[in-house]
Amino acid sequence: MLCCPIIKNKTIFVLFLCNLLLFSILYYAHICYAEVNGKDQPGSPVVNQGNIFSNDQTVHTQYSNFYEINKGLVWVGLLTSVAGFFLTVFLFRKNKELTKSQLSLKQSEQRFARVFHANPNIQTINRLDDFRFIDVNDSFEKIFGYGREEVIGYTPLDFNLWVNPQLQQELLTLLGNEGHYTDKEVILRTNSGEEKVLQGSGVVVDVTGVSCVLISLRDITESKQMEKEIKKLDRLNLVGQVAAGIGHEIRNPLTTVRGFLQLFQTKKESCDIYKEQFMLMIEELDRANSIITEFLTLARNKPERVEMKNLNSIVTKILPLLQAQALKEEKYVYAVLDKVPDLLLDENEIRQIILNLIRNGLDAMSRGGNITIRTYIQEPHTILSIRDEGEGIKPEVLEKIGTPFYTTKDSGTGLGLAICYGIAERHNASVDVKTGPNGTIFLIKFPFDNQNQLCNTKVS
Ligand SMILES: Nc1ncnc2c1ncn2[C@@H]1O[C@H](COP(=O)(O)OP(=O)(O)OP(=O)(O)O)[C@@H](O)[C@H]1O
Ligand SMILES: [Mg+2]
């Protein structure tokens, strides 16, 4: 009875009325019978001359039997009525209790739904046996770009959500064995193909008798990226400090050796036969010297000569040189320059960034390839982007770019990007890389308030 479904109060009322009606009918039947037989006292002896059955003793006995049956029916009716009354009262009270508990269940469901949907973290409810979505919250829709109705009833695999699809089975096994998991890092793909690093937990819950898993995920893509950049910059700063420490010490003896080599070169009588070797040694020393010069730029923590400049004017000045260099390799450089605000820039350093990125782009492309330099505003940043049509950067290389001396080229020093990152940092700009088999794009993002930030840096 306790777990019986709630009976509507109207139904109980109808039951009660039926009960009353039954009792009334029986009572009325009894009265009628008594009247027909001239009896007003149910249960007293039956004698009725006016009645068609009055002279028949058998009929008289039947009357008595009928009367007894009728009396019995009235009692049954009465008892049913009383029982019905108590049953009605009982059902009514039970109903009240159930309605109350159902109401509080409904309220708690509504509370859960509000928390579920308003949660800034991604939340989903999936079936435990096949991982089909039962519900997703607003953050899921916003971050992944799929509507609720679109995903409900489907699995993450149907949407190619997993970057690493076997993880779904691993998580399901973990949930099956332990009932929950916490702080797992997963990479999922959004509707637009962007990859998001998410950290989250899952717990098995019962939803209307079906085993489900409630998943909460936090988007840590940006903090992961930042972590990587900080690590990179830390390495860069360390290398910069080392460079500052030993750069000058190495340069001085090199200068001395170079001076003597030049001197010997002039001594025709004894050294003429080694003229070529002397030349080579001097060239190698010059190369070492230029590497040290580049290396030393890593040690800087401020731009040297900053002034209010426009990125477009720097690009326009350097463009013919870049185009001429590219043309020698049958490659092309274009510039698409939007109107951008002036920024506090060190012109030489910005040129250096452009030169290094263009050099890398040219190295990555085969003949006929194009490089596009763009400047544009994407609030709150002014962007300088350099896009090439090269082979792209492999994931294992992408991890390491910007680390001083990391190169995949035979003749590279591996300082080009390290210098770019250093220069960007000194201008309070960040560097983003997007790469794929059709090319690579480097985005240098200068904040609008680069001016203020640089001034603050200088003061401190
Ligand atoms: N646009 C690009 N396309 C493909 N790979 C690139 C690109 N830019 C950089 N790389 C990869 O990153 C590595 C590091 O680049 P970086 O500019 O720091 O050094 P490098 O070009 O090898 O040497 P250098 O010091 O002469 O610049 C390169 O060796 C190359 O493998
Ligand atoms: Mg390079």
UniProtKB/TrEMBL annotation:
PROSITE patterns: HIS_KIN, PAS. Its EC number is 2.7.13.3. Residues 108-153 form the PAS domain. It catalyses: ATP + protein L-histidine = ADP + protein N-phospho-L-histidine. Residues 245-450 form the Histidine kinase domain. The chain crosses the membrane at residues 12-31, 72-92. It is an enzyme of class 2 (transferase). It holds the Pfam family HisKA. One of its GO terms (molecular function) is phosphorelay sensor kinase activity. Keywords: ATP-binding, Kinase, Membrane, Nucleotide-binding, Phosphoprotein, Transferase, Transmembrane, Transmembrane helix, Two-component regulatory system. NCBIfam families: sensory_box. This is histidine kinase. It comes from Desulforamulus reducens (strain ATCC BAA-1160 / DSM 100696 / MI-1).
